[in-house]
């Protein structure tokens, strides 16, 4: 089991705003990271600094040139973070909006006929976009069934369904309900083995804060994230689109530069905060490795984050010290199973005879912030096959501690 050393843990937590206290309720443990991660202090400072700048982009003055340089630096930083050679980095309204745009443009620009392929594990951001644009373009929307027992879908499951008629395909990187990561590279290979020309778009929104994104190794055409789940702030999304996807027709100003995805002037401060996020991964990588190159440090940070979060979720499931874990608490059922190597910093569960909403309320009263997932349009695809109206979602990030897990287990023992 690997947990950050105390001095590194303290240094990590010092970099985030409201790491131990809610500005409205006081002291609390934040286990609601899948709903929106904590914000880096540097992001707060950067946002304020750029919000005060009156100048606009594309003007003939030093301030405007500085803004444009900030945007280009952020694009380069994010290309490094995503390991995305080529293609375009751009921002939009939200991660969901960008998924809709890329999936729409893929469906409208793909060769006529065929089908749109997705999976039942996906978040409605991609499921809804694929369903809508499959219908608009007169294509069947084919679903690959996920495994209810493991909470994930595999390359083998895609391979069993994919046909040469697949024109557009969607992949979820990590589920915000089950917490399980998918083998994106393996799924993309399974698709391309049968439908090499398919346009593949990935929802990376839940996965991003755990690191470990390697677009160059995945052979996909689009990847979207929501920066407020990546230690930045609300109000925008970020996407990468391949050169092939960018070359298709999409909304743009007549006579504008080729390959432009953005409509109107974007917030320079939003871009600038992405550089802060990448700098944080670079810093963490320098603390846990001797890597000399920035990309290697980012990869080392992702490995350390995975190890730290694995240690925390293992303790949550198996127990620590004299505290029993969720897996041994009578009547508790863990979504995706307690022994699941695909888990990324998230445990969802329900308890017999105790509504999930009541457990969330009781944890909140104990100063522990979690979240209720209901069998609605967001999570029904996961919960309805399990026969559950709701579950408790406990989501972690690398600034959470083993002491916080102990407090959670002690509260759960009392509640149940």
Structure description:
The protein has 416 residues and is an alpha/beta fold. It is 39% helix and 16% strand. It has two domains: 6-38 and 302-415, Alpha-Beta Complex (Aspartate Aminotransferase, domain 1), CATH 3.90.1150.10; 45-278, Aspartate Aminotransferase, domain 2, CATH 3.40.640. It contains 13 helices and 17 strands. The mean pLDDT is 96.
Summarize the structure.
The protein is an alpha/beta fold. 39% of the residues lie in helices and 16% in strands.
DSSP helix fraction: 25-40%
Shape: globular
| Order of strands in the sheet with most strands | 4-10-9-8-7-5-6
**CATH homolog superfamily of the largest domain:** Type I PLP-dependent aspartate aminotransferase-like (Major domain)
Would you give the CATH topology of the largest domain? Aspartate Aminotransferase, domain 2
Seen as an oligomer or otherwise, the chain set is single chain
The CATH architecture name of the largest domain reads: 3-Layer(aba) Sandwich
Low-confidence stretches: none
Domain Aminotransferase class V: 29-408
InterPro entries: Aminotrans_V_dom, PyrdxlP-dep_Trfase, PyrdxlP-dep_Trfase_major, PyrdxlP-dep_Trfase_small
Enzyme class: transferase
Protein name: Cysteine desulfurase CsdA
């Amino acid at each position: 089991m690997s947990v950050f050393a105390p001095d590194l843990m303290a240094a990590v937590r010092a970099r985030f705003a409201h790491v131990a206290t809610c500005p409205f309720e006081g002291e609390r443990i934040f286990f609601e990271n899948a709903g929106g991660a904590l914000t880096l202090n540097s992001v707060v400072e950067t946002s304020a600094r750029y919000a005060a700048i009156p100048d606009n982009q594309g003007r003939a003055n030093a301030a405007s040139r500085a803004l444009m340089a900030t945007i280009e630096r952020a694009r380069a930083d994010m290309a490094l973070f995503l390991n995305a050679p080529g293609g375009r980095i751009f921002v939009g309204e939200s991660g969901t909006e960008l998924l809709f745009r890329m999936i729409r443009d893929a469906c409208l620009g793909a060769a006529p006929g065929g089908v749109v392929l997705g999976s039942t594990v996906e978040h409605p951001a991609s499921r809804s976009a694929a369903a809508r644009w499959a219908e608009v373009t007169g294509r069947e929307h084919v679903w690959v069934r996920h495994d209810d027992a493991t909470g994930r879908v595999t390359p083998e499951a895609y391979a069993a369904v994919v046909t040469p008629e697949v024109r557009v395909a969607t992949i979820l990187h990590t589920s915000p309900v089950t917490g399980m990561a998918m083998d994106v590279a393996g799924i993309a290979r399974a698709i391309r083995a049968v439908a090499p020309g398919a346009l593949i778009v990935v929802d990376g929104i839940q996965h991003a804060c755990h690191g470990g994104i390697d677009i160059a190794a995945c052979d996909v055409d689009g990847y979207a994230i929501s920066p407020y789940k990546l230690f930045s702030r609300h109000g925008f999304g970020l996407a990468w689109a391949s050169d092939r996807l960018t070359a298709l027709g999409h909304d743009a100003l007549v006579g504008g530069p080729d390959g432009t995805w953005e409509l109107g002037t974007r917030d320079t401060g939003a871009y600038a905060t992405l550089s802060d996020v990448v700098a944080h991964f670079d810093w963490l990588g320098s603390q846990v490795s001797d890597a000399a190159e920035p990309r290697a440090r980012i990869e080392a940070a992702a490995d350390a984050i995975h190890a730290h979060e694995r240690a925390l979720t293992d303790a949550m499931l198996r127990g620590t010290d004299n505290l029993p874990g969720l897996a041994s608490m009578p009547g508790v059922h863990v979504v995706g199973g307690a022994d699941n190597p695909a888990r990324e910093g998230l445990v969802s569960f329900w308890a017999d005879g105790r509504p999930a909403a009541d457990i969330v309320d009781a944890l909140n009263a104990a100063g522990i912030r979690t979240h209720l997932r209901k069998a609605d349009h967001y999570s029904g695809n996961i919960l309805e096959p399990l026969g559950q109206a709701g579950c408790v979602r406990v989501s972690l990030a690398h600034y959470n501690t083993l002491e916080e897990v102990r407090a959670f287990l002690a509260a759960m023992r009392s509640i149940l």
